[in-house]
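User: Predict the complex with zinc ion.
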Amino acid sequence: MVKNKVYVLDSSGIIGGFFSKKFANFTTSQVINEIKDLKSEIFLQSALENGHITIKEPAPQDSKQVKRVITESGDILRLSDVDKQVIALALTIKRDGMDPIVVTDDYSIQNVLKIIGISYRSVLTKGIENIVGWIKICKGCKKKYPSNNSLTECEICGSPIYRKRIKKIE
Ligand SMILES: [Zn+2]
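Assistant: Here is the predicted structure with zinc ion placed in the model:
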């Protein structure tokens, strides 16, 4: 089964004017409250009215899981409540059977997403690479892809590709 790709936007995504026209875009109410500049507010208002961006809140169990992960990884001190909500929303969406990609320029958020195996992309800056080693593997034929490969389906057999953590090669 091929999953539906959806984007999860944090405030840097919205301020950067990012949303996908092809796939659904989600954000949380706390992110909306964080948007203060007029240009971003106008962009956001029209995206909400046109149904390009949908507001969704994370499930409580996913907020709890995020708290566990960031306590262990040490990212807890660098993440705001809004950041945690965005990460938890991505987990909720994944549990709903979709394939979330978080749009964020925040390196701490990106690091936590790497740990929990959720994809992300940057709006303005280039994302961090290789904090942990990752590889992508096809669920069907087990073909390996580099971790920065953007394919979500295998080019050989069409099965979903998943990310696997590997020991980093120095
Ligand atoms: Zn394959």
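Residues 129-170 form one domain.
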